[in-house]
Each structure stands twice: as C-alpha cells, then as structure tokens.
Amino acid sequence: MVSRAVGAPIARLEGPAKVSGAARYAADYPQDHLAYGWIVPSPVPRGRLDAVLTDPAAADVLAVLWHGNAPQLQSSDDPELAVLQSDRIAYRGQPLALVVATTLEAARRAAQLIRLDITAEEHDVELRADHPDHYRPEKVNPDVPADTGEGDVEAALVAAPVAVDVTYTVPALHNNPMEPHATIARWDGDELVLYDSNQHPSGIAEAVGAVFGLTAERVHVITEHVGGGFGSKGTARPNAVLAALAAWVTERPVQVVLPRQAMFSVVGHRAPTVQRLRIGAEADGTLTAIDHQTWTQTSRLFEFVESAAVVTRDMYPVPNLRTAHRVVPLDVPTPRWMRAPGEAPGMVALECALDELATELGADPLDLRLRAADPGLAACLRAGAERFGWSGRDHRPRQRREGDWWIGTGVAGATYPATAMPSTARVRALADDNFEVAIGAADLGTGARTVLAQIAADELGVPVEAIRIRIGDSTLPAASVAGGSSGSASWGWAVTGACRLLKSEHRDEAVFDTTDLVERQNRKDRHARGAHFAEVRVDAVTGEVRVSRLFGMYDAGRILNPRTARGQFLGGMIMGMGMALHEESVLDPAAGTWVNHDLAEYHVPTHADVEWIDAAWLDRPDDDLNPIGARGIGEIGIVGSPAAILNAVWHATGTRIRDLPARPDKLLE
Amino acid sequence: MKNFEYRTATGPADGLEEGAVFLAGGTNLVDLMKLGVATPDVLVDVNRLPLHSVDELADGGVRIGAAVRNSDLAADRRIRTAYPVLSQALLAGASGQLRNMATTGGNLLQRTRCRYFMDATMPCNKHRPGSGCPARDGDHRNLAVLGGSPACIATHPSDMAVALAALDAVIQVDGPAGARSIPVTELYRLPEDAPERDTTLAHGELITSVDLPALPVAARSAYRKARDRASYAFAIGSVAAALRVEDGLVSDVRLAFGAVAPKPWRAVTAEDALRGRPATPENFRAAATAELEAARPLRDNAYKIPLIRNLTVAILTSLRGDVR
Q1: Among residues of chain A, what percentage have pLDDT more than 70?
Q2: Does position A2 have pLDDT exceeding 60, yes or no?
Q3: Is the bond leading into A142 cis (omega within 30 degrees of zero)?
Q4: Of A5, A79, B45, B55, which is most buried by a Cβ count within 10 Å?
C-alpha cells in the first residue's frame, strides 16, 4: 500500500543540487574552445546604423558582427529575432553588434571601444492617453478581442445613484529573474545545440530553428535548470539567436549572457498602462455598470498589447460592461509577458476603483465585493477575512495611529484563468522497478519536476523515489510553455495519461498526447480565485510604507504540493508588494530609455520588506477540469495583492495613490 | 572592462603614477570599472597596509584605521556607546555582504549613484566633463536640493559620512607631499563648474585614518534614514544628530543631512538657531526650515525639503527624550 504523493509537502527533488552548486544553469556547461559574445547596444532610441568601426588591434577578438557582415537569417514571426539584419534602430539598447572574443573580458572591452556610426532621428517614447497615434488593436494578449461591450454603460452610469470615475497608472515593470537570459550555442555539423535559459525548450527549438532554416528536430535545446523567468523567457530571445549566429561564424561554441542592464531592453517588460475605471452602483451596493478603458504602448517592431481590461470581463458579473484597449507604438523596447500579463495591472485599477466606490457608498469594502462575487471568490473573501481578522474594522481612513505610524488594512479579490495546453509525455518501466517520466517541460524553480514525480508516483502506485524525471530538453516529448499558470495542469495531464496507458495496457513504454483532450477542455471558462488582505504602516515622518501583514486565500483546485505551492503563492504576493510599493522602470524621455536598469536602482522587495506573510487555500479539487484537478497557481498571487496594499495605504492615511508605486514622496505630509 | 595592472601597496604614501588609483574594499570602484565609468590603468591594493584597527586617542577620541570594515566598525563597542550615530549610520547602509567588504576610507570616497553617472553611455559632467547634465531635466527625484550647480546635482551616497560630518571627524591623509589632516566637512567639494572632482584630495593622497574627537554630546546621538524600501537602498533623505539639553535648553547640538547635497551636509545654520534655545519641536522645525532656506529643488525632488524637516524634528525630539 502506497500513500498518496500528491498533496504531500515534498521538498524539491533538485534542491540539494541547487544549494550545493551542482545544478547546471544555461551558462554552466563546459565547452572546448568556448568563445564569448558581448552585445553592443544602441545608444539612441531611433535612427540608422551606418557603420561599425572597430579597433583592428584588439587582441583575442574573433569577430564583430553587425548587419553589414552578419549572415542573413530567415524571417520569422518575431521581428526581435531578426538580429543584426537591418540598419534600422527601433529602441535604445537594441543589439546593433555582437563582439565575439576568446575571453569574456576581451569581448566586453572591445564592445566598450567600438564606434557606431549612427544617424539619429527624433524619437517618441512617452505614453499618453491622448497620444494622437493611439489605435484599437485587433487582438490583445494572449489572443482575445480588444474591446467588448454589453448593455448601455453610459446610460447606466448616468442613472447610477453612486459612481466613481478614476484613472490609475502603472509604470513599466521588468521581470528581473535571478538568472539572466543566457545561451551557449554550438553547431554539431548542421545541427544546432543550445544550452538556454527559457520557459519552453520545444518552442525555442522551433523559433530559433526557423530563423536558421532548420526544423525543430535539428535544434537541441537543453534547459535543465532555470533561475526564474516570470514570462520573460517564454519565447526565444535575441541572446539565443546571437549565440547561434556567432557560433556559426566563428565555428566555435559561443556563450552570450546578458548583463542585467541589457535585460531592461532586450528581453521584454510589462508595458506601462493608463487605466480609466468608471463603476456605477445602486445605493445598496449592487453593481450596475463597469467601464474599463486602458491605454498602453508597444514597440515599432512588434505589437504586444498588455491586456489590462480583460480581467474585468471575468471578475464581477454586471449588466452593463464595456472594456477597451488602445495602444500607441513608440520608439521603445517590445513589451512582453510578465507574471500575470494584463491581470496584474488590470486588477490594480479594478480593485482600487471598487474600494473607492465602497468609500462613496459608505460600505464595507469586503461586503461590497461579497455582494458581487461568484461563489469561489466569495468563499475566499469570507475565509480570508476570518483568518485575517477583518471584522470590527473601522472603515473610515486615518483612524489608527501608533507612535509615528498610521495603520490601515485593505482587501482585494483576485482571479486568473485556469487553462491547459497540449503536451506529450512518455513513461518507461525501467529494469530496476523504477520508472522514467520524460516530458520537455521547464522547471523555472517552481517545483515542476517534483510535482510531476508526485503525479506519476500516484498513477503508477509507486513511491516518489521510484520515479526518474527527465525534463528541460527539446528532444523529449514536446511540452507546453511554463507560463500562464498552466504548467502542472498541462504536463500533469500528459503524464497521467501516459502512466494510465502504461498500466492499463501492461506496456514497458507509453506516450500520451493531450492535444485533442485539451482542445475540448479549453472551451470551459474556468478561473482560479483568490482574496488578498494587507495591513500596512505608513510613517508619518517619512511617508515610508511597511507591510506588516499580507495574507492570501485561494481557490485554485487541488494543491499538488503544499510546500512548492506556498512558495509560488508567497512569491507572487511579494512581487505584488513590489508592484504596489517599489517597482518602477523610470523613463528618461530625452535618452529614450529606462535609467534605473540594475537591481540596486530597480527596487524589488528585500527580505526586510516582508514582515509577515502567509497563504492558505480552500481544499477543493476541480476534478472535472482536468485529471489533475488543479487550476494553476503561478500568477494569482500577484493579481490583487498590489490593490490590497494600496487600499490599506489609503485606509491608513486617507491618501489615494493612483499612480504606482506608492513611494514615500507621494505620502509625505 | 579595460585591462589594468594590479599591485599591492607597500606604504601609505606609495607614489601613484597618472592613471593609478587605490583599491580598498572594491564595492564601488570595481562596479564602476565593469560599467566602463572608471577606467584606471593601475590598481594599487591598500588592503595589506596596517590600517585595520580602531584605537583610542590620548585626548579620549578614537582613531579608525582606513581599512577597517564597515561591519566591524558598526559593531565596535566604543563606537556603539560613545558615537551611536556612527554605528547606526553604518548599519543603515548597503547590505550585510557589502558592509563586510566596504572600508572606512573607501566608504568616504565612493562616488555618486546618480543614474546618469553610473551609465557610461549617458552624458554626465562628472564622468565626461563638458558632456552635460541630463539629470536636471530628467530623473532627479533622488538628487541634490542643496549645494548643486548647473553642471551637477549628484548626491553623495554615503551614510557613514553623514554621521562623521555631524561628529566633526578629521581625516588623516598621507601622500607625495606628506601627511595632513582635513576636517571631513572639508574633504568634499561642491561641484560648481568642475563636478568631476569630488574631493579636495590630491592625486596619490591616501586616507590612512578617520579621527573622532572626544565629543560628550555624541553619546546621545542617532541616525535616521528614509529610503524607498526597508533595506539595501540609498537614502532619499537622512539626518545624523547629537543633542544635549540642559534646563530645557539646547546646550550642544550637531546636525548633518544626507542624500540632499553633493556632500554630507553639515547643518550649521540649524545648529546656530538651536544653541541656547528651548529644546521644543517648534524650535527644531524652525531650525530645520532655516537650514533648508538654501534649498533649490527641481521638478521632482522638492519632497526632500519636508522630508528632511520632518526627520530633523523627529530625531531631535526622540533624542530630547525626557530630558527637561
């Protein structure tokens, strides 16, 4: 008799390898005759590169690649991968050349000394809601309509006895995983080997293969361990193509590791948003109308639209609902996915505006939400309020002071779509009574490897120790991207299928592809729900904010591993704290770029910022959603937690921060 | 990163050729070299010089060797009891890892963290004289409101130096022209039209120690730093203060402001306004206001004026305690 592994708080299988330094990340694989590539970034946001002048005496330099001499690449659907192919400059920081040298130091020095002959042009990098170039995109991320409408919002707002009309702005934010984007590329004949830090080995094989005219089968992507991605490693980034290009030209393996500064321009970010929220309600708090309009920016290379208003389509049922997105193309780096793209900034505006409505109504912000919430959200709000200690709260702001500290509490709901994507897994019975589970998934540090072993162990009726997990390799059966909070559901589904097939047919090997099943399943509209509660202190002397308590209660289906799940929830909540209080990519309009491009100046929360934090969940497996019963947990922690903190800041001080982050200078008296 | 020669200093006043610089903890210089902002030809490592001790001086003061690590100095019993403001300032700075490497001398000579200075691709009169100052119209939320010039509004980043300014510390240096003493407040120069020069040190002069005078008022002293997050962030404003109150009147007071000027800002005007006056929050506020009259804020940094005023009132009020 074997006890169930799923649901047990098993430590990460690769934990000892990671803490001892044995685990290998992308740039850790030894290579003979390894060369090093260093990017030369554009110093201007817009213009034309006419020539690259190099110091002919520079020792140890193997090649200086730019559009004037780089091999021609095939075009692909991602213009960012067309590196060194054109004289056009689309943003400051865009790679204009790559220096390849026998040592990292030589490459770096040569890159510093290089002379770029550039014709600069006037640039435009500032997002404004009234920007004349804004337009309505066909689709917004991930692939949904830009605008929706039901009922008559304008009439309902006019008729509403109580309404709010508020605008929230969220600055550009950067993913900043601990491990930078990194690639070692090597050509074995006409086949390409990439050791690459990414969230989707098979997707990288396909994308990088495409620009080199190779089928995905001829590109071998190895992604054994990943030091975080938060969405920025979901697709192939220029570092992978640059490394492969340099390896082709120099006929040596080449490593390209982006310095932190380059990660602010080359690999994506969360685009800034301006969001106008109008909400109308009856005097009893019944919501009658919501209008959520959002303006954002994209680059001139590629349209990516941060879908901030989409979250409002799924959150509170309301008879009159309009959501709309407008986008402005600017001379800026291309925005991309960042943890809960759309949902995270969108929920700030929605849940803060709802709080403002509660104030107008003179209502308890919790009661207002309970009135509008679906059963899953309501259950989280009730259970969370109980655990947090919400009852008895004086809802008026600026009522509680201890010494120099104003103290306040806030609440916000959360939602994130529960999806699965097609994946294939293979299971083999090994000679020693163990089983090998193989799937080309990536473990970003979330515990995916561990959870898959737990799922397989239960399906096969063996202990976790009997499972050998192989992931992080594009030659394994193809898995979906580690993104969209869908990894465990997608890969676990394939693993479950393969294990069941192996057992039912008494075979030594079974392969299971979920494509057909998933396509049927995805028509269901399902969401994870959550409720965040925050208690903050605001220093009356300095305006400094401290989060003394942050609590999340989630309805996310079956929790496969409470230990790794807790890490995901808390990590998301802490990132939400950063979004509310610290994180901001500061734009210099004249230079046309973000100027705080390192971790000393781009502030993410430190340990000292996290005083008390906890997450809990309703134990409600969603077994008719997928065979795992899981709804995905990677992103819901950052959805809603920033609003809970901002609402608490208002409750503490009486000051509404509508332009994030809530820095001390905005709260200083 | 440019190639450089590395050697170990053999004496305090090792002659430095053009292009040579001293290397202490390396927590700032090495970063600047990686970024291409500092491009020395020679690094002369001073870590092996016998400058690692904290010694008592005959007059009751303390001599801090230039190579004493920030974490060791913060933990020193004499510093914690006789000069708590210094210990608190050190512990408010950087992170544990950085404090373990950073040295007393190096801390004083760290360079501004102005985001334009730290980026070799940006114009900056400090790292490329004559190239301009984009911060004035750009990102200056954390730059100077006092002591800046049209050419530069960088702020000095050290917390420790603010405490030393309040304590009347004296810097001992040795160099090609011999040894000399410089009050810490005279170590730094305002940018005027030559912001590339941070200090009054001559090329090749090495800080050998920092001397703290015997200063009874310092036993009742404190440092308070405001910042954008709870740890590992430069100050947006800070105040170092020491206060003695007798019969309800301020008999001695020392005040210095951080993160508001190109140097640690000794608040002489405020001190003069307080000496001999009743130790009340109203007077503390008036004194801070008088000092901040000289402030010339730009678009986004005017908040530093109320911030410093609030900090001054709060810290002096807490130092006053129950003393009447």
Answers
A1: 99
A2: no
A3: yes
A4: A5
The answer to whether the CB atoms of A582 and B229 lie below 8 A apart is yes
Q: Are A43 and B121 in contact (CB under 8 A)?
A: yes
Mutate to test the interface with A, among B2, B117, B137, B228 (most CBs of A within 10 A): B228
DSSP one-letter code for A554: E
Structure tokens at B250: 């301020």
Minimal Cβ distance to B310: which of A542, A595, A597: A542
> Is B120 part of the contact surface with chain A (CB cutoff 8 Å)?
yes
| Mean pLDDT calculated for residue range A642-661 | 98
pTM: 0.98
Task: Name the residue in chain B with its Cα closest to that of A663.
Answer: B228
For A154, the 3-state DSSP assignment is helix
Question: Could you tell me if A668 and A542 are in contact, meaning their C-beta atoms sit under 8 angstroms apart?
Answer: yes
Residue A227: phi and psi, rounded to 5, are: -90, 55
Span A304-346, pLDDT tens digits? 999 999 999 999 999 999 999 999 999 999 999 999 999 999 9
Q: Is the dihedral of CA B37, B40, B45, B49 positive or negative?
A: negative
Q: How many residue pairs from chains A and B have C-beta atoms closer than 8 A? A: 95
Could A595 and B121 be called an inter-chain contact, meaning their C-beta atoms sit closer than 8 Å? no
Please name the member of B119, B234, B313 whose beta carbon is closest to the beta carbon of A595.
B119
Per-residue confidence (pLDDT) for residue B323, from 0 to 100? 47
What's the rounded Cα separation, in Å, for the pair B291 and B253? 14
The predicted model gives A466-486 an average pLDDT of 97
Q: Tens of pLDDT along A617-634? A: 998 998 888 999 999 999
Residues B262 and B185: beta-carbon distance below 8 Å: no
Give Cα separations from A550 to A23, A431, B105 (angstroms): 33, 49, 41
The shortest C-alpha distance from B231 to chain A (Å) reads 6
User: Who contacts B165 (Cβ-Cβ below 8 Å, separation ≥6)?
Assistant: B184, B185, B240, B256, B263, B264, B265, B266
Neighboring chain A residues of B110 at a CB cutoff of 8 Å: none
Domains and CATH numbers, chain B: 221-320 (3.30.390.50)
Q: H helices of A284-374, where? A: 310-315, 343-361, 365-372
What is the spatial distance between Cα A255 and Cα A246, in angstroms, rounded to a whole number?
9
Contacts of A624 (CB under 8 A, 6+ apart): none
- Best of A542, A585, A586, A613 to substitute, by most chain B Cβ atoms within 10 angstroms, is A542
The answer to whether A57 contacts chain B (CB < 8 Å) is no
Give yes or no for B122 touching A (CB within 8 A): yes
CB-based contact, B1 to chain A, within 8 Å: yes
**What H or E segment, with its residue span, contains residue A203?**
helix A201-211
Is A596 part of the contact surface with chain B (CB cutoff 8 Å)?
Answer: yes
